[in-house]
């Protein structure tokens, strides 16, 4: 009796061959359409990304050119201001050798100071007793001094800064404190080299 309730083998075979295969074929067709759509979307995204990358590179180039132009304009403005200083010095030197040119040189010096001030340039001139700052001070020599050990004993050459930038460090001597009168040994050659290099600048 059980065998009569079961569908015939032929009917099962027909179902396997028609129903599932039609459903699978339809699903495959749908997946292929979706895949084609995804490929198109991917290609569009890749194309947009390449355009954005090219735009960004062009933007960076434009910004770099703009910075270079601004720097060139700023440099030209500074040089233009310095030309007046040069002209004043040239006029002073062109005077008769017996002429007193001190007043003219002082006026020219003040003009140069005005140019530097206008550019935000400030001198670095540590007072004796100031703590050493390696980013702003260059130690030339260690000397006996009444100043506290490790502080500035004397200023040799002023430095200059502009904003947060140190254009030139101040050259200083550093105190070893009051001594016995004996000269320092050991590092003398090192300091002599620094001093001689400074003279060449």
Rg (C-alpha, Å): 41 Å
Please summarize the sheet with the most strands. Answer: 3 strands, antiparallel
Number of helices: 4
- Rounded mean pLDDT is 82
Explained architecture:
The structure is a single chain. This protein has 201 residues and is of the alpha+beta class. It is built from four helices and six strands. The protein has helices at residues 2-5, 9-94, 102-118, 188-200, and strands spanning 121-124, 137-143, 152-157, 159-162, 165-168, 170-175. The strands form two sheets. The chain has a three-stranded antiparallel β-sheet with strand order 1-4-5. The chain has a three-stranded mixed β-sheet with strand order 2-6-3. Helix 2 packs antiparallel against helix 3 (102-118). The longest helix is centred in the first third of the chain and has 86 residues, at 9-94. The chain is elongated, with a radius of gyration of 41 Å. The N and C termini lie far apart (116 Å).
In brief:
The protein has 201 residues and is α+β, with helices and mostly antiparallel strands. The chain has helices spanning 2-5, 9-94, 102-118, 188-200; strands spanning 121-124, 137-143, 152-157, 159-162, 165-168, 170-175.
What labels would you give this structure?
single chain; 201 residues; alpha+beta; three-stranded antiparallel sheet; three-stranded mixed sheet; 4 helices; 6 strands; 15% strand; elongated
